[in-house]
Description:
The protein is of the alpha/beta class. The chain folds into 2 domains: 30-130 and 229-265, D-Maltodextrin-Binding Protein, domain 2 (3-Layer(aba) Sandwich), CATH 3.40.190; 132-219, D-Maltodextrin-Binding Protein, domain 2 (3-Layer(aba) Sandwich), CATH 3.40.190. Helices cover 31% and strands 23% of the residues. The chain contains 9 helices and 10 strands. Helix 2 (56-67) links the parallel strand 1 and strand 2 (71-77). It is elongated, with a radius of gyration of 19 Å. The two termini are 24 Å apart. 44% of the residues are buried.
Amino acid sequence: xxxxxxxxxxxxxxxxxxxAIALPAAADLDKIRTxxxxxxxxxxxxxxxxxxxxxxxQELADAIAKKLGLTLSLIPFPAGEDVSDDLRNMVWKGHYxxxxxxxxxxxxxxxxxxxxxxxxxxxxxxxxxxxxQLARNLKAxxxxxxxxxxxxxxxxxxxxxxxAMVLLGESSLRESVSIYPSGLEAVDKLKAGEVDAVVATRAxxxxxxxxxxxxxxTDAPFPRLPRKGWVIGMSVKKDNIELAQAVQKAVNELFExxxxxxxxxxxxxxxxxx
Length: 274
């Protein structure tokens, strides 16, 4: 069963290149312009996307705000139990701790099921396609011929993630798996030589290894993984139509100008347009 949490955005995916809106535009963008600020919600500890050290989502939010002639006002928030909690807390209702909702929420799965379950919001503007991949130390595992090549090797993964689930589901690998608080920490352990391989997201792996030739990154050889990965987009309240149109236009321009690729590259991650 697929679970949509902050670190588990996996499902049957919608590939969207544009965002067409049939509903009449509301005055939401005019109201935002009077404040001069675009409030954007980002997860508070979600590297390489957002956190105290900055991240891709934070830079992208700033780039969008600038395209709209606004100043960015970030609202970091802790992830809820699932994506529906985050959409309620940060898009259409407000957090029970007293902050939010924001004008825009970053890093939402562009998924039909999530959209149907959350009809108070609009999920749109896909800007990345992530996948689960395998990174390995070439000295420890010079050749990869399926799961058998990983047997007897030390393998890292993030707790409560699809990566850990598929690894622990393989009886021949179960005893070799080390679980870490985050995918980034698992990749750090790989780079430090403490594990031989890691199963994590493409963005997590690339942001740490940054093309280091001592490691090779490939598709993870587990049939239960979503081969096409999952698409990441943004969300606004359902009736904030004018804002959604403006944000979509800004995202399109960032792709067309090459700014999106440059932004991702600053974090060591290759931009993958959905």
